[in-house]
Structure formats: structure tokens, C-alpha cells
């Protein structure tokens, strides 16, 4: 497999965690979203992924984009360890949380949107994340065990950790979100989350390396 990734992309990080958890080795091709006006807009990358975003995963003779679609494919082709619970209610809760982050929070504060916001980008990002986290904190108070849903790592957790990193980067006060913070801390102790961290990628700038 070949993963097209950017060290700081939270969507790419989700996929890196999934690959690490499932023990799938891959080659990483960095796509710098800032340099050269954004390498994702190059003709070469557009031919590979018309959406012009990372991540993209070349695997089993196909190219997939969209992080949750990639993770679902990995789940179906490499079922162990599972990232979706067997219980239908818990499985629905995992998908609900993953969708809330991947559709309801992250796209509102990603690079392409922030470029449009000009000087207000920090305030905009903080507002988007805060309103999303207020809902998420409430949801997790009902679903969480050690992790987002019960005590097994799930697709929801793969979305949570990169989003908390974004919140910290945009200086969001995490005080009102004790459940989110507790789960994030527990997940960051796991090896798959450590090795996939933005500070430990081949394209991480020297000053941001762990």
C-alpha cells in the first residue's frame, strides 16, 4: 500500500492510526498542502485523487480517498483488531461520533476554509471546534468507557485524537471538556497513536519533531 499523507492533516492521521493498529505496513508519499501553492493541486496528484485532498491510499489495485471510507475498507479487509463493535447499538454510536467529528467539526476548520477567513481564521476555528466539542462532551458522557465507546478502541477514537490536536493548535480551552481530554490522554499512550503522530512523520519539519 501507498499512503499519500501530510504530517499535519488530521484526516491523514486517522488513516495512519488505522494502518498502525491493524499492522499494515505501507510506503508513505508526503503531499505538502502549503508548499508550491499546495502540492495537492498538482496535475499529477489530481490524476490520482480528483478530490485534491489527503489522504489517498493506493491498495489492492484501487485508489481510495476520504478517511472514513479508507478506514471502513481496512476494517472489512483486515478485521482484526476490529474498529467497529459487534453490538449494533455501539457500532451506531461509533459511527455517530466519527461522523460528528469528520463531517461536523473538521471540515469547518480545515485549510481550505481557513484561507477564506483571512484574519478571522483563529476565531472561526475556535468557534467551530468549541460548538462541536460542547455536543461531543455530552455524547461521550453517555457512551464512553476507557475510550469513546466502551473500552475498545474504535473508529470514533481515530477521529477524536487528531481533532483534539487541532483544538490545541488553535488554542481552544479544553477545561470544559474533561471527558474528551481524559479519553485523548488514554489514547495517546497507545503505540499506534504514538507512531502515527504528526511529530513523528517523514515529512515533519525538524522544529516540530518529537
Describe this structure in words.
Belongs to the GST superfamily. Zeta family. It is found in: Cytoplasm. It comes from Eulacestoma nigropectus (wattled ploughbill). The chain is of the alpha+beta class. It folds into two domains: about 80 residues, 3-Layer(aba) Sandwich (Glutaredoxin); about 110 residues, Glutathione S-transferase Yfyf (Class Pi), Chain A, domain 2 (Up-down Bundle). Helices cover about 50% and strands about 10% of the residues. The protein is built from nine helices and four strands. The protein has a four-stranded mixed beta sheet with strand order 2-1-3-4, covered by helices on one side. Helix 1 links the parallel strand 1 and strand 2. The radius of gyration is 16 Å and the shape is globular. The model has no long low-confidence stretch (mean pLDDT about 95).
Q: How much helix, percentage-wise, in residues?
A: 40-55%
Describe the sheet with the most strands. Answer: 4 strands, mixed
Query: Element order, helices and strands?
Result: EHEHEEHHHHHHH
Q: Rg to the nearest angstrom?
A: 16 Å
Average pLDDT works out at 96
| Number of discrete helical segments | 9
Counting helices, strands and paired strands, the structural category is: alpha+beta
- The count of strands amounts to 4
Q: What top-tier CATH class of the largest domain fits best?
A: Mainly Alpha
- The CATH architecture of the largest domain can be named as Up-down Bundle
In CATH, the topology of the largest domain is named Glutathione S-transferase Yfyf (Class Pi), Chain A, domain 2
The rounded distance between the terminal residues' Cα atoms is 26 Å
- Count of discrete structural domains: 2
Amino acid at each position: 500500500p501507498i499512503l499519500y499523507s501530510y504530517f499535519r492533516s488530521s484526516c491523514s492521521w486517522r488513516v495512519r492510526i488505522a494502518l498502525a493498529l491493524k499492522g499494515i505496513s505501507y510506503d508513505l508519499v508526503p503531499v505538502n498542502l502549503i508548499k508550491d501553492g499546495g502540492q495537492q493541486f498538482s496535475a499529477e496528484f489530481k490524476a490520482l485523487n480528483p478530490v485534491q485532498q489527503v489522504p489517498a491510499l493506493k491498495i489492492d489495485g484501487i485508489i481510495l480517498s476520504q478517511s472514513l471510507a479508507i478506514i471502513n475498507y481496512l476494517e472489512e479487509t483486515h478485521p482484526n483488531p476490529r474498529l467497529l463493535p459487534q453490538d449494533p447499538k455501539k457500532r451506531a454510536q461509533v459511527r455517530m461520533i466519527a461522523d460528528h467529528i469528520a463531517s461536523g467539526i473538521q471540515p469547518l476548520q480545515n485549510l481550505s476554509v481557513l484561507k477564506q477567513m483571512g484574519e478571522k481564521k483563529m476565531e472561526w476555528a475556535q468557534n467551530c471546534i468549541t460548538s462541536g466539542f460542547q455536543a461531543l462532551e455530552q455524547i461521550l458522557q453517555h457512551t464512553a468507557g476507557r475510550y469513546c465507546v466502551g473500552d475498545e478502541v474504535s473508529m470514533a477514537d481515530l477521529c477524536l485524537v487528531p481533532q483534539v490536536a487541532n483544538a490545541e493548535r488553535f488554542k481552544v480551552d479544553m477545561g470544559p471538556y474533561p471527558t474528551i481530554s481524559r479519553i485523548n490522554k488514554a489514547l495517546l499512550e497507545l503505540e499506534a497513536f504514538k507512531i502515527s503522530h504528526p511529530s513523528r512523520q517523514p515529512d515533519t519539519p525538524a522544529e516540530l519533531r518529537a
